[in-house]
Amino acid sequence: MRKSASSLFASFITICFLLLLSHPVFAQAKKAPVEAIRQSDLKRDLFLLADDHFRGREAGTLDELKASAWIAEEARKAGLEPAGDDGTYFQFFSLIRERVSGSSTIKIGDRSFNLWKDVVVYEPSFATVDAPVVFIDDADTVAEETIKGKVVALQFTPKGLTDPRKSIAWRYSGFVIAAWARKLGAKGVKAIVFVSDDLAEQAWPRAAQYSNRGSYQIEGSLFTNRQQLKGIPIIWVRKEALNLVREPDQRLKATIYSESFTYPSVNVVAKVKGADPVLSKEYVLFSGHQDHDGVRAIEGVKDSILNGADDNATVSVALLAIGRAFRQQPGRRSALFVWHGSEERGLFGSTWYAEHPTVPRESLVAVLNGDMIGMNAPDSAALLGIIPPHLNSSDLVNIALLENARGPKFKLDTEWDKATHFESWYFRSDHYPYAKKNIPALFFSTLPHPLYHTPADESTAINIEKLTKMTRWMYATGFAVANAAKRPQLEAGFKLER
User: Fold this and answer.
1) What is the CATH number of domain 102-256?
2) Domain Peptidase M28: where (predicted)?
């Protein structure tokens, strides 16, 4: 009897998986006891960590430290060994914050603007400006001689600029500034004044909150220059100031000061020792971040606490659950768990740990990172690091894909892993500093959603069943790596596009 094309294809896939299982990476691998990951544990921990009690776990605050202490205590109760500095669960690092000083002054014509109420200084700088204002309609074609030595003013959105982020005002406004600030700055302007249009006005309350906090940095950051411009103020005024900046012969007089502070931030680090006397000296690193955006009084929004249930309490509690599972049945290799601090400030905790690991860096065989794993369609997910140039270990990818086929069978969205994706999602989570160190790394996610970075990202919105499946998938992947005869190999010639 002749087989149909679909039957032949199914047989082909089966043979491929059997051949895959015979690969040395999979040899001697045990099937993960995923039932050790319990939905009730995840739900209980999620509702505790993403509670108002921790006030949104903002990096560099006592709230982040309190949440980190809670995680460390839960790890201790689960039987995980401390793996931080000096025999503790903690690895502290200094977070440097720079913000615009409240003593800064801004005046256009005869009008003085109140900082954070009717004007935003987009990033910290030191500058004194006294120059004429030139309003332009087309930032792309304006001649350098028209604006050099002057203050250029333009409205959101400049002509000719379109982008998929336009559907979310606060993300789009940042894109507009990023797109045009450097272009205009390169033409010798003294300052840039963006004026809200209707869309940008929606983003104003959030922009004022974020810019008021300033910018953050650590020693050795991957993002060494996070400012759009240096010494050229980027100023954002509200829509009602449009007629003022359009008037001829206006001048901007501004004196911008900045001030800096140093705060402690922390990674929580724990481990479960492997069962093999030799392979236990190698580690499978499970990665997530525990911080979020803290307390922010946002205009028109009653809830001021951004609890970040999906981002990233979901992964924080997933790591606890995976740790308990490894404690019940250790792998041959050791399992290392790092809850990174200050991810929202610029991947600072993971950058610090990748540079200052508490175990030998060469002993890290793989990094399995998660960020936001409890939302969107119940049958879909994303795995980043599987498409070149982000693919850095086919061995590791094959293990993860096989465990998905065995278990949750998620439909994988690969668009967000592409180098051409407008969100650059691959570069926005804690696997990235490890990949930069040539450590095989994957990024598990269920991707952004309308509640992303809003007060509505609460535990009640999380799909606990999906969270459980994602946690089991991460665990099964790590368990397979921990028990494989050989560690996953790095792709020859691996190099990220940035």
Assistant:
1) 3.50.30.30
2) 267-475
